[in-house]
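Task: sequence design from structure.
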């Protein structure tokens, strides 16, 4: 057992209001330079919708992530034989049309236009060419048409949805959508790292953050194709690739990443997970219906004496292990099992998890008066009659496993019923307790879930351990050698970083 640490995240989608404050905070700090205009390390998508870049989830088009062939894992997008033939044209590389051509406005026209009968306007001009352009797309183009058939009909996750369910979604139109914020998942089995011929991408040993060494990047852009989430971008001005770095300078000083800190809905949680690095390859090759359980098994119990011993063997301090024991992410993912990874079938083992939006309503109205359901069988109505089909949510968060999604939603619904019985009193407590039992939970756990989701303090949401960067640097055995073994078990390189 090779115990390693990973700074991991949970986003609670029931609390996301789609304000894009996280995106703007990230944009202002990291991607406000020439060549980064189209980059959104953090973006918020409207689902159902095609996302950013367009249809990024369609790996028949982009060939991102891993596949199992002959019992071994291999990248879909590239290989040693494909590097040189694709160096000038990679058929699976997203184009500017898949993103959008960034633009600004010629504001001086408002002041410098000659006198006339018409009100002058500020024409849109390309930030790439400087020429006037017609705006056709943007990073959150689905927002104004959330759930409508215009864009949502091209959502890859609708592949398992019946025609009748599609018609239901289209009929409700804008009423049926939820927000889906995305950043780099900092995967345990990152395809971007494996694809880079120059070795510019690497995974930090002490915290698992995936970074790009700008000095070693040679603009192969294999990382852009290989990442199935399309969170690696190419800077056309510098000729280097860039990506989300989880604001590691902030983490190293005990601060939450900018998008986490600025989140208005307080949907974001951050903490450390311990995992067994020896089993990554084994888990990534599991059949698709076993991937969720496999990834959960990969995550280790930070209270287990054997795990603690293994962690100390790899250089983790007692303080670091204590932070792992307090991690909110561990509770969401491993204990409560209500947070799920996006598109685990890509086999990168993402370490960003989502608590899915609880879209069904609890009751109904009768003569314009709200009427609560008071029977468990009514509360746990058929989830396939949800406003957003269960199959759609399962494709997005549960690798297509409807049962895993059903388990998560039932537990979330049970917590809501339990708290309603406590606070409003229109549901008998006996019914609420029976509902909890049917959802594989109890009063104590339901109260803990409620407090962590509705009433957490800043310190409870962001459990940031000392990342011991200075220890990792001092772990070099010989500064003259190019690569050395770090105290956290990973091979690291001198002078690495952005």
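Answer:
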């Amino acid at each position: 057992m090779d115990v390693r640490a990973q700074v991991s995240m949970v986003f609670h989608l029931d609390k996301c209001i789609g304000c894009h404050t996280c995106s703007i905070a990230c944009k202002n700090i990291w991607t406000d330079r020439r060549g980064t205009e189209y980059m959104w390390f953090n973006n918020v998508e409207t689902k159902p919708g095609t996302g950013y870049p367009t249809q990024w989830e369609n790996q028949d088009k982009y060939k991102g992530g891993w596949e199992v062939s002959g019992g071994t894992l291999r990248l879909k997008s590239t290989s040693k034989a494909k590097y040189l033939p694709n160096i000038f044209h990679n058929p699976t590389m997203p184009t500017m049309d898949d993103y959008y051509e960034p633009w600004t406005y010629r504001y001086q026209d408002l002041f410098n236009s000659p006198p006339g009968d018409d009100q002058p306007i500020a024409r849109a001009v390309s930030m790439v060419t400087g020429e006037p352009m017609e705006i056709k797309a943007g990073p959150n183009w689905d927002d104004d048409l959330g759930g409508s058939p215009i864009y949502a009909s091209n959502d890859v996750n609708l592949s398992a949805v019946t025609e009748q369910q599609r018609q239901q979604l289209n009929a409700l139109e804008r009423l049926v959508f939820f927000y889906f914020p995305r950043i780099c998942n900092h995967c345990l089995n990152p395809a971007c790292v494996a694809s880079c011929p120059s070795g510019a991408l690497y995974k930090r040993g002490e915290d698992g953050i995936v970074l790009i060494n700008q000095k070693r990047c040679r603009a192969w852009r294999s990382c852009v194709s290989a990442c199935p989430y399309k969170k690696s971008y190419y800077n056309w001005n510098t000729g280097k690739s860039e990506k989300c770095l989880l604001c590691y300078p902030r983490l190293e000083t005990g601060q939450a990443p900018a998008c986490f800190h600025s989140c208005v809905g307080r949907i974001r949680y951050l903490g450390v997970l311990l995992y067994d690095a020896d089993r990554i390859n084994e888990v990534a090759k599991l059949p698709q219906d076993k991937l969720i359980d496999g990834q959960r098994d990969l995550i280790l119990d930070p209270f287990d004496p054997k795990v603690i011993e293994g962690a100390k063997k790899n250089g983790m301090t007692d303080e670091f292990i204590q932070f792992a024991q307090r991690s909110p992410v561990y509770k969401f993912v491993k204990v409560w099992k209500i947070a799920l990874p996006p598109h685990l079938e890509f086999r990168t083992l993402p370490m960003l998890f989502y608590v899915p939006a609880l879209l069904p309503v609890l009751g109904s109205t009768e003569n314009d008066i709200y009427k609560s359901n008071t029977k468990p069988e009514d509360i746990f109505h058929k989830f396939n009659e949800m406003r957003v089909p269960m199959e759609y949510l399962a494709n997005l968060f549960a690798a297509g496993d409807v049962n895993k999604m059903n388990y998560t939603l039932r537990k979330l619904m049970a917590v809501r019923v339990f708290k309603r019985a406590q606070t409003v009193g229109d549901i008998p407590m006996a019914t609420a307790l029976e509902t909890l039992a049917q959802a594989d939970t109890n009063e104590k756990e339901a109260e803990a879930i409620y407090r962590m989701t509705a009433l957490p303090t800043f310190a409870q949401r962001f459990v940031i351990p000392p990342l011991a960067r200075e220890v990792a640097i001092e772990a070099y055995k010989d500064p003259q050698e190019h690569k050395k073994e770090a105290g956290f078990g990973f091979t690291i390189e001198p002078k690495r970083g952005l």
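The chain has a mean pLDDT of 86.
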